[in-house]
Amino acid sequence: MTAAAKKKTPAKTAAKKPAAVKAAAPRRNEPMLGADIIVQALADQGVEVVFGYPGGAVLPIYDALFRQNRIRHVLVRHEQAATHAAEGYARSTGKVGVVLVTSGPGATNAVTGLTDAMLDSIPMVCITGQVPTHMIGSDAFQEADTTGITRTCTKYNRLVKATEEIGPGLHDAFHIARTGRPGPVVIDIPKNLMNIAVPYEGKTKFTRTTYNPPVEANETAVKRAVELMAGAKRPVFYIGGGIINSGPKACAATTKFIRETGYPVTATLMGLGAFPENDPQYLGMLGMHGTLEANMCMAECDVMICIGARFDDRITGRLDGFSPNSKKIHVDIDPSSINKNVRVDIPLVGDAGAVVAQMAKAWKEKRNTPDKRALANWWKQVDGWRAKLSHYYEKTDKVIKPQYALERLEALTAKADRYITTDVGQHQMWAAQFLQFREPNRWMSSGGLGTMGYGLPAALGVQVAHPKALVVCVTGEASLMMNIQEISTAVQYRLPVKIFLLNNRYMGMVRQWQEMFHGSRYSESYMDSLPDFAPLAEAFGIKGMYVDKVAELDKSIKAALDYDGAVLLDIRVDPAENVYPMIPAGAAHNELVLHPGLSKKKATALKLDRDQV
Amino acid sequence: MNDIVYSETTHKPNAHRHIISAMVENETGVLARVIALFAARGYNIESLTVAEVDAKERVSRITVVTTGDDMIIGQIKAQLERLIPVHSVYDLTMECKYVERELALIKVRSSGAKRVEALRIADIFRARVVDITTQSFIFEITGECEKIDTFIEMMRPLGLINIARTGVVAVSRGPSNLRDKKKFTSS
To answer: What interface predicted TM-score (ipTM) does this complex get?
Structure first.
């Protein structure tokens, strides 16, 4: 943490604290209370901040936190928000996000965020309090079978049964969370163990022989993959969040390698920013709301190089229609991702960064030479798809189009040190389409689980990690309402997040599907009694703003960005706007529907484009 | 334990019976982890056995009989290997020759000629009598599943009243030790 960040620690709270009883620096093997071991182990892991909410079963830990000043605690307003804040912190820094919640409801409230982190491979350690060991199984007050409940939504979890296990258990948890395919780890600690003093051994080595994630891929397979790539006539790179998890260096190396090949590249929602989006080789995002050029390249390619992505159903569309004529290379650190949805020809199991380095080396030594004429033809085809203007929308000065609002946000913040979080729905897809990411770790969005309510707490986590940066939470009114209480957290810690609320009074994506697939019967997708968000924000203690005129949009955005503190900007947008392009559910990925306004005819599936191949 | 989870995967055209053997660390909840994985992902469990096989190293062997096509069996292996306390997983059916055994205790209640016939058939199957009263026998029988199935069918008309089966255990033939195999080594 920078000195500036330390200064941001709220003066108010600090002042209220009585002179802290400073714990003396612990000597090795000196007996310490379980609660102090927890805090010491976190410090030994380099943890700077913990997101949490106190309760009966974790009071000894909160007492230990009170007696020290190395680890900062951010008090959220709901445990789910603690997990999302930790995700935002982790995703924007590459470090492990840490959560501390109490037993029972504290743990069950954290389940959504744990599942979210599991599906998006976010490193997280969640410490849950548990009732005392002698009461486990007695349906005690605030008892829940936390390890049972979180077994399938964590990478690993365990119930600690002796104070001696706390230290090694936590160090193992961090190792498991951050290595291999990252994910959430839950450590469930009974309250009585926190009050027992045992020697603390310091940072222990990970000794389990059962866990040994792969790093480099099989060298022969790498050579085969590179020869296949070099012989391709219609290649495409398909990259995802795995590269971002591998780190900024891996992203830079991948970018360099892709540029050396000159092949087109598309990124998943989780992979945005891994490759600079302003590069001419970049095709935009692929998948259900991806660009025509990205999806058509995937459909028509002869060699697909998938790095750190997992052939999710939102990418593939109908499986039997997915890129039927291509050879597929799949780089993934998780062997269970190989052949899960789509059968691949050459699996390369290893860390994305390490395998790309292997591939780049093999590329220099390859025997095959790329067919320049075939590639030129391929790019010509790509240009043809690009000319169809996937991100078209109808501009008007009568009502603010959500796409226009995001275009203006992009224009007014492009040069800033900017981090974007989103919630889930239409605004999320528009943000992915209309904002540009040139670096990794700048885009935080709930991809796999699609958790409404993710955006605001994630933004708080990002802002805690990057106190000086511009953090914008692009959200919709329905998503925001799911965790709106977290504005209060922003106030307490003076986190100057900008809430960019695209308010269309509908659950927009639900409404869009109802319009398209359920005969425009808008069943329960309209909220009749939404609050007036600007005064609501003011009531929380941040700045609230409102805009509904196109002409005033720029001025409002600038004012929100310039304001020294958190702002909620309520932007009243066109309630009837739909996200295009779209692969309808059950359709193949080349049956993408473009904006109806693009042609006078009905929106048609673009099968016609196949004729060009 | 037939169709303990979802039975959809059982009757696919390319589905075959596989014996999966997993060496796992004998820690709390490891069996729950394995079962939760099968339930959550819709894989079938036809039989399941688990017991510690190395007390010093705290290693247990879990033997699962399951059904699926190649892609599903591949997934089951990969998903099991992904679990932190799992040492190694192998598909005995595909990776080696193996010996497979199951044990069953079968109670038959009958009298007169049926009682004699039950004893005679038990002798053919090399089943042992482990409990006897004037009205009943308990037979202990070991063998491959099919042998036990057949024995049960033979006993049905002779007064069969209770069946207890252990589920399949299996081990590879020959001198090799599949336990030496580590996770993630094959590509």
So the answer is: 0.84
